[in-house]
Design goal:
- The protein has 229 residues and is an alpha+beta fold.
- Helices cover 22% and strands 15% of the residues.
- The strands form 2 sheets. The chain has a 5-stranded mixed β-sheet, with helices on one face. A two-stranded antiparallel sheet has the order 1-3.
- Bound molecules: ligand LVM2DEV6 and zinc ion.
- The ligand C[C@@H](N)C(=O)N[C@H](C)C(=O)O binds next to strand 7.
């Protein structure tokens, strides 16, 4: 594999047991196509962020869970792809699963997608918890009927994640980490993910239960654009 910029690493080298479900390398995401710049299903991160995640993983495995990453370092060209997609208001092919109740025109202004994303700085990660032993997960088949990410877990895409109250990249207030409608086991699952990552120096984004940024990130002002490969 081509060399990474100094200070970056493939998460598999640092925390080999973390599961990967790199959605933007596939068609199973809010755009419905693989995203520019994702050439391999890899999680690239700054070494600092990867090391902190490895520590979180150790604590979670001891409790019978594993982390599963959906997105890690995100090239600026991928963000630009999201922006172009947003400008094409008529393309609503993935609405039913990912933003069933929100207008496509509000996804950026509402804070659910960023034009300059922390992910491009390499120390931000989207992730969930999976109970061990991890269940196998069937592949997404492009064109398959979509189920709203806001529905009960049994009626959403069968992700092997624990119930977090919504699916991943669910652009809806129900995905806000502290939304009061999320109770019981799903609330406890969100709390376990958040407290475990906070202990390792990450801060959660209050609008998205899955999105975390390392507070003491090494490149706070740099937006990288090398491909994920
Ligand atoms: C698009 C979603 N996965 C995400 O990461 N949203 C935040 C706001 C971002 O784009 O940085
Ligand atoms: Zn994110």
């Amino acid at each position: 594999a081509p060399a990474l910029p100094d200070g970056f690493v493939d998460l598999r080298r640092v925390a080999p047991s973390v599961l990967h479900d790199i959605r933007y390398q596939t068609a199973h995401n809010f755009v419905g196509r693989p995203i520019d710049g994702y050439r391999a299903p890899k999680c690239l991160l700054t070494k600092k962020a990867a090391t902190a995640l490895a520590k979180a993983q150790r604590a979670l495995v001891a409790k019978g869970y594993t982390l599963k990453v959906y997105d890690c370092y995100r090239p600026q060209r991928a963000v630009n792809h999201f922006v172009r997609w947003a400008e094409d208001v008529d393309d609503q092919r993935m609405k039913r699963e990912f933003y069933p109740w929100m207008s496509k025109t509000r996804l950026f202004s509402g804070g659910y997608i960023a034009k300059k994303s922390g992910h491009s700085r390499g120390s931000t990660v989207d992730l969930t918890l999976v109970k061990l032993p991890a269940r196998a997960q069937r592949p997404y088949v492009p064109g398959e009927p979509l189920q709203p990410c806001t529905g009960p877990q049994a009626r959403r895409f069968p992700d092997n994640s624990v119930d977090m109250g919504t699916g991943y990249d669910c652009f809806d207030s129900l995905a806000n980490t502290a939304d009061p409608r999320v109770t019981g086991q799903a609330k406890a699952n969100r709390k376990l993910l958040k407290t475990t990552l906070e202990r390792q120096g990450f801060a959660n984004y209050s609008k998205e239960w899955w999105h975390f940024t390392l507070k003491n990130e090494p490149f706070p002002n740099r937006y990288f654009d090398f491909p994920v490969q």
